[in-house]
Amino acid sequence: MVLVVVMGVSGSGKTTVGSRLAEKLGWKFYDADDYHPLENKKKMEEGIPLNDEDRIPWLCALHDILRREDTSRQDTILACSALKKMYRRVLIGGASAIESNQPEQSGENPALKILFVHLDGPKDLIAARLEKRRGHFMPPELLQSQFDTLEPPSAPENFITVSLEKPLPEILLQIETAILQGEALPE
């Protein structure tokens, strides 16, 4: 059973990569954007970046989805920005990760084992993608705030970094290979 979070700034291709990978592997797919409360979407539409207070309840709801899928032994991919280390800790450990500053939990709700796939690439390429995107609540003007917030994953986090400059089939193959070979996956 595997949980994967495809992460990165807005416009990095999280939904495209995550949904195509889930389709290819026959796994369940969730797009975190679908779970933003209306207030968050309105702020972003108005060009106001979200803060931690806006994101934490949303991340806790996403953790609950991942926990449910983990409990039912369902391989799952979530497309989610997960820009800060703290946000990734909340996805792993839920609300208690905020207080303890650690995702590790014991007892009834141990920390989830998640592979974070960081889609990384140059800002100008991502900006060009955002300019072409239509009908999304996240305006291109907020891209800089996403880069300002981004804390790329690092050890001891469980992650791989994939260049979004590669063609989509190569990106999918790199992630699939890492999953199937058990690279970067928890034991």
What does this protein structure show overall?
By secondary structure, the protein is α/β, with parallel strands linked by helices. It contains 8 helices and 5 strands, in the order βαβααβααβααβα. It has a 5-stranded parallel beta sheet, with helices on both faces. The longest helix has 20 residues.
Number of helices: 8
Mean pLDDT: 88
Q: Strands of the biggest beta sheet: in what spatial order?
A: 2-3-1-4-5
Flag low-confidence runs. Answer: 103-107
Rg, nearest Å: 16 Å
Give the overall shape. globular
The CA-CA distance between the termini, in Å, is 11 Å
- What's the story with the biggest beta sheet? 5 strands, parallel
Structural class: alpha/beta
Strand percent estimate:
5-15%
Written as H for each helix and E for each strand, in order along the chain, the element string is EHEHHEHHEHHEH
- How helical, in percent, are the residues? 40-55%
Number of DSSP E strands: 5
Secondary-structure map with pairings?
Elements: E1 3-7, H1 14-25, E2 28-31, H2 38-45, H3 52-71, E3 76-79, H4 85-93, H5 96-100, E4 114-120, H6 123-132, H7 143-149, E5 159-163, H8 168-180
Parallel strand pairs: 1-3, 1-4, 2-3, 4-5
Quick synopsis:
Helices cover 45% and strands 13% of the residues.
Keywords, separated by commas or semicolons:
187 residues, alpha/beta, 5-stranded parallel β-sheet, 5 strands, globular
